[in-house]
Amino acid sequence: MLSRTHHENVAKPFLKWAGGKRQLLPEIQARLPADIDQCTTYVEPFVGAGAVLFHLLENYQFENVHIADINPEIILCYRVLQSSSQEVFRELQVLIDAYPVKEKNDTQDPQWFRNMSIEFIENGGKVSKIIDSLKISKSTYYSWKGRNDGPPCKKKKNKAINFFLKERRRPIFNSLREKWNQSISNLVRLSKAEKISRVAQTIFLNKTCYNGLYRVNDDGEFNVPIGSYINPSFPTEEQLIDVQASLQDVKIHHCSFEKCMDWVDGKSFIYFDPPYRPLSETSNFTSYTEGDFDDDDQRKLSNLFRELDSLSVLLLLSNSDPKETDPSDDFFDDLYSDYTIDRVRSARNISSKGKKRQKISEIMVRNYE
């Protein structure tokens, strides 16, 4: 097999993505084909944030690597970062520099709470929002506003500072989100510079929005509100350069998963990580493209799995485990009854409420021992 240039640092996902597999990598590694070193082609039709992709590129050598996703924005990110990581970082840095940060001297002025309140109200904010957000009474608010050093304890001070910081950031975030949404139908017509700028915007919005979600409405518009991260974790220039180094020679496709039939031979390994089947009506809280991935799509994928199996392609697939909430739900057990199904525990990275983040069962299906 052809050798890839080995770089010093391991590339990591540059986005936070629903269903991201960083936490599940040990379980995936333990279930890779024993003879994966003999595979000449690796295919990942639902690449998402790329945790598995980058892990395999760092540890194995393939002559051909194909990644795909139906989401045009994620594919644009990969294509641009494949050749222009430093340019993307420069654009990203401009956005980061314009974003207000929490300063150590925010509370050095004895009148800081009063001044921040006045600034918030002058910019269209309401006193009622301060009261509701800080969970205080109206009399407490005016007491804090009238006294030196504002709230009487450190915890309440931090909560107030974080509230005002978020409100300073909100118009910047909303303006960028609106600008981003104006180009959703023009991706193919964007110039190289515009594509670079858009990828930087996508990364910035992903890192500053609520819970790091990527969600669009029926019109394809990104509609996630601003998040509460005090110190958002943005990729560094070095990290984006590592991504570019890993993506060299990788073939990047914007297409549905069925297209992967065109890329395989008898020495191929495919990892399928489709949108997970929701475990409840409320768990399917995001839409990552304008269309949904329903049970009919899951069945189509299982049919493709069988067809690829008949071609001696090595296959590994992840999905939710319906038995987690309904022990009688045999949906996947029936679909993949001819294959090995392992159940593993995984902590979900994204939840509508942090306290609901917990380890749940997921399935891993494979057609080899």
Give the secondary structure arrangement, pairings included.
Blueprint: H1 25-30, E1 41-44, H2 51-59, E2 64-69, H3 72-97, H4 112-122, H5 127-134, H6 138-146, H7 154-181, H8 192-208, H9 237-247, E3 251-254, E4 268-272, H10 295-310, E5 314-320, H11 331-335, E6 340-347, E7 359-366
Parallel strand pairs: 1-2, 1-4, 2-3, 4-5
Antiparallel strand pairs: 5-7, 6-7
Helix pairs in contact: 3-8, 3-9, 4-7, 7-8
What is the number of strand segments? 7
Q: What Rg, in angstroms, do the CA atoms define?
A: 23 Å
The helix-strand sequence is HEHEHHHHHHHEEHEHEE
Low-pLDDT regions: 1-7
Give the averaged pLDDT, no decimals.
91
Largest sheet: 7 strands, mixed
Summarize the amount of helix as a percent range: 25-40%
Q: Identify the CATH architecture of the largest domain.
A: 3-Layer(aba) Sandwich
What is the straight-line distance between the termini? 24 Å
What does this molecule look like?
Residues 1-7 have low confidence and may be disordered. The chain folds into two domains: 25-70 and 255-366, Vaccinia Virus protein VP39 (Rossmann fold, 3-Layer(aba) Sandwich); 91-191. It has a seven-stranded mixed beta sheet with strand order 3-2-1-4-5-7-6, sandwiched between helices. It is of the alpha/beta class and 369 residues long. Helix 3 (72-97) packs across helix 8, helix 4 packs parallel to helix 7 and helix 7 (154-181) packs antiparallel against helix 8 (192-208). The protein has eleven helices and seven strands. The protein is elongated and about 75 Å long. Helix 10 (295-310) links the parallel strand 4 (268-272) and strand 5 (314-320).
